Hints:
Layout: H1 15-39, H2 44-61, E1 69-71, H3 76-86, H4 89-108, H5 120-142, H6 155-171, H7 180-184, H8 187-205, H9 225-229, H10 243-270, H11 279-296, E2 301-303, H12 305-313, H13 320-334, H14 337-340, H15 345-359, H16 362-370, H17 373-388, H18 391-409, E3 418-421, E4 427-431, E5 435-436, H19 441-449, E6 456-460, E7 466-467, H20 469-482, E8 488-492
Parallel strand pairs: 4-6, 5-7, 6-8
Antiparallel strand pairs: 1-2, 3-4
Helix pairs in contact: 1-2, 1-12, 1-13, 2-11, 2-13, 3-4, 3-10, 4-10, 4-11, 5-10, 5-15, 5-17, 5-18, 6-8, 6-15, 8-15, 10-11, 10-12, 16-17, 17-18, 19-20
Amino acid sequence: MKLNKPTQGLSFQYLKEDLPAGLVVFFVALPLCLGIALASGAPLFSGIISGIIGGIVVAAFSGSALSVSGPAAGLTVIVLNGIHDVGSYEAFLLALVIAGIIQFLLGWVKAGVIGYYFPSSVIKGMLAAIGIILILKQAPIAIGYAKDQATSFQMGAVIIAAVSLLILLIWEIPGIKKFIFFKWVPGALVAVVFGVIANEAFKTMQPSWVLENKYLVTLPVANSASDFLNQFTLPDFTAFTNYKVYLLAVTIAIIASLETLLSIEAADKLDPYKRVSPTNRELIAQGIGNTISGLIGGLPMTAVIVRTSANINAGGKTKMSAIAHGLLLLLSVVALSSVLNKIPLACLAAVLLVVGYKLTKIGLYKQMFKLGWEQFLPFIITVVAIQFSDLLKGIFLGVAVSIFFILRSNHKRDYTIHQEKKSEGGQVYITLAEQVTFINKGSIAKKLADFPDGTIVTIDGTNSHFIDIDVLEIIHDFKQAALLKNIEVHLVNIPAFLGVSGH
Length: 503
């Protein structure tokens, strides 16, 4: 039986799923855009610009169905230090324009394959680490903590966050979506509406619980078209003689590209339809987005797994959900700033706490441990290293540990893939080598993805002494996705894949 799956292109067929998902992503992205801009030492509006471009422009050019792009927390230190190094925010914007061009060229020369050479244990460690960071960062916001206040919490924030969490957990009850209201109205929207109503009700019922403006969303409010246009910043093209601008541009291009490729692969793993995103096209899309962002005053962007996971959890099916979230961000700064400024940060923090929990469930750690030390050590080292350094350092340390295990396993062995195409029936016979590791998963994934509809594929692991968990995951994902392409798959002596749930 051939199963239908949503397209990876633009489609209006799934608007009833994509529009609510886009709304959820909007509520997740809004505080992130503002918070990342603040942490980067950039104008707050720059974060919104980046979110709008990531949602509309990058999604339109991207080949990913579910990935959502925007300003990335992993780049905040680079932006903060970069602005200082080049002398001004305008000079930084010039570096961002150049970085976007570099990313475009990387996609054009097909450098996107580098993303395949990162083991899944490290990618899952990155997801879990981001989940922990979200929980640690959002917990103080959920209780209304501020360094300059006399008390350690705000009762109004605690109540709003607690009820918002309860609302979100109700939406997670198995089978609850069979009721029309729970199916069509996202829990995050209900939590946000409750937060606004509750804080307004406190004004008459319990004034001491009313949240001050610093505990609410803070968007710049434009009173006229000229005010709105004045929020955009142009790059300083006279800084083209400053060599530090080019060093910064290369740094942004490399790090943003790597984070994007890792997030894209993670998004494909979370995709229930197991669609494979074209990485070279993604680099081109990101390059276009960052170039435009730099030209009008935005922050650098990447594909962001937090927004993407929120999109998938909310039921998004195609890239229209990402575009919808970008349009909502645009609408918010054009016409709804004063309304959005009534939203308590506590209820948005509750949304992010749930997203963080889903990324770093305790069950994930238990299941990774069951896979053995070769998988668990890179995973847990990545998680810990990211907490005490940053995203990229943690990833590289996790990869280094994975390489150690691979080198130990493949001391004197190599691998080959033998493919025999028979003359009739479109049959393909693949014999795996003695040692198949995560280093080989890129070529295997590409080979499997190229088979046309109606092919009969046999994958034989009889001669294999070792098949890495990453390759097993690709093979079994291929077998599952093959139904969607009417491909018949036979596995011979291929071990079962002990999958890791929780995403």
